[in-house]
């Protein structure tokens, strides 16, 4: 009987630890979701940084936490704020329409730059052969040379 009580107690403690881990992981997941949303939104008080970076907007942070507590997804919360403030509330623009240029242009510029650098470094540097002077057919060449030597 004593052995069976130990097994039941051991079983109960494992289940308790499991539930505790589940509860803590849910809290951490909610905190991570809140942090992720706060990093995705620009603070509308000054439009200078994200809600996560600037602690100027505690009402918005509390509202985000309430939305998460209500079980809303990240997309639903972002759509709420887009409806309220427009797309400029997003820290990262949506890759649709003209905004896709924000994503494509740096990639294209980087590829063009790497290609240019590759071809520039690949071209051989021809070392010119030494200049062979041949007597020129310029009239008064000797006199010009003398005058130039006097100038030096």
What fraction of the residues are assigned to beta strands by DSSP? under 5%
Helix proportion: 55-70%
Number of helices: 5
What's the mean pLDDT score?
A: 75
Chart the SSEs and their pairings.
Elements: H1 2-40, H2 58-69, H3 74-85, H4 100-122, H5 141-151
Helix pairs in contact: 1-2
What would you note in describing this structure?
Helix content is 64%, strand content 0%. The protein is an all-alpha fold and 152 residues long. The chain has a domain at 2-101: Helicase, Ruva Protein, domain 3, CATH 1.10.8. It is rod-shaped, with a radius of gyration of 37 Å.
Short recap of the structure:
The protein is mainly alpha-helical and about 150 residues long. It is about 65% helix and about 0% strand.
